[in-house]
């Protein structure tokens, strides 16, 4: 019984939670995973956040990565973009992104990017360090990201629905 309790405590402290839906990797090593584990993310998705319409488009796995883009439109104008990738390397996955203003000037320095190593993967969820993607159904995904506003971390939810523009 003591061994089980110690194991549970280790698991709880190993995956420190940022918020209700996001995890932190801490000093742990990313688990083994391949792009096949997250291929369900591919598609054209739309939702609402930050007072506007959000759009994510993800390609199916090809080579060692999946390519994604994000756009926020408020009051009929594009506010900003993100170029994203989920890359397979060293037997695991990492989520990377760069931000751009509406005129494509970058937020990060030329050779910098945001990076979220994999913490845990499940059949319908991928937990990256501070960034989670969950499949709710074939036509709905939710993304959760920890954003620091004035030094205070806050988990933000994005609800997306499969977009069919036919």
Automatic annotation (TrEMBL):
Residues covered by the DUF6265 domain: 39-146
Record's signal peptide: 1-19
Keyword vocabulary terms for this entry: Signal
InterPro entries, per the entry: DUF6265
UniProt cross-references to Pfam families, sorted A to Z: DUF6265
Domain of life: Bacteria
Protein name: DUF6265 domain-containing protein
Native organism: Roseivirga echinicomitans
């Amino acid at each position: 019984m003591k061994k089980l309790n110690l194991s549970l405590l280790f698991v709880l402290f190993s995956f420190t939670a940022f918020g209700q839906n996001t995890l932190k990797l801490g000093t742990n090593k990313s688990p083994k995973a391949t792009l096949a584990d997250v291929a369900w993310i591919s598609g054209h998705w739309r939702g609402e956040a930050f007072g506007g319409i959000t759009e994510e488009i993800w390609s199916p796995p090809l080579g060692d990565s999946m390519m994604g883009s994000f756009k926020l439109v408020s009051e009929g104008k594009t506010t900003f973009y993100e170029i994203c990738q989920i890359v397979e390397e060293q037997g695991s996955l990492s989520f990377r992104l760069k931000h751009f203003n509406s005129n494509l000037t970058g937020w990060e320095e030329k050779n910098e990017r945001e990076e979220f190593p994999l913490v845990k993967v499940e059949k319908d969820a991928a937990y990256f360090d501070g960034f989670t993607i969950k499949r709710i159904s074939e036509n709905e995904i939710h993304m959760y990201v920890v954003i620091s506003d004035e030094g205070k971390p806050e988990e933000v939810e994005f609800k997306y629905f499969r977009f069919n523009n036919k």
